[in-house]
Amino acid sequence: MTPDEMKSFVAGFLEEVWNRGDLAAADRYLAPEYVIRHDPGDPWDGATLDRDGFRDRLIKSRAPFPDQRFSIVDAVAEDGRVAVAWRWSGSHQGEVAGIPPTGRTISMSGITFYYIVNGRLTGHWQEVDRLGMFRQLTAG
Fold first, then answer.
1. pLDDT tens-digit series, residues 20-37
2. Which of 5, 74, 95, 131 can pair with 85 through a Cys bridge, CB separation 3.0 to 4.6 Å?
3. Is 3-138 in CATH node 3.40.710.10?
4. Which residue ranges make up each domain of the chain?
5. Are strands 69-78 and 48-49 parallel, antiparallel or unpaired?
6. How far apart are CA 52 and CA 23, in angstroms?
7. What pLDDT, in 10s, does the model give residues 71-126?
């Protein structure tokens, strides 16, 4: 894949899989094993997931924020890696980390490095502003 094709591939993954929650689309994007190399605060940090495990993660991650949206701020690609700076927002409609639904729309930002081998995503390394998210969820 060229760098532009890799960026487009990751953009499609974010739109179809994470924004729309399309479980079937995950098979088009994921390698048989997906490694979460670094994602502090994520329950799956350090896990190696098969496609079923990834779909389970997707369902559980989207449940509290079913209308969530990732938007790409910037992306750079080379040598089988795509670095994506993104913004995320969603309405808090289900329990997350013991916090009952607030109905608030919250937002956060982050950066993710996606790894691509043979045209499939094999994992990511990510930094996210989870503290900012929890401050929004618990604000009085």
1. 999 999 999 999 999 999
2. 74
3. no
4. 3-138
5. unpaired
6. 9
7. 999 999 999 999 999 999 999 999 998 999 999 999 999 999 999 999 999 999 99
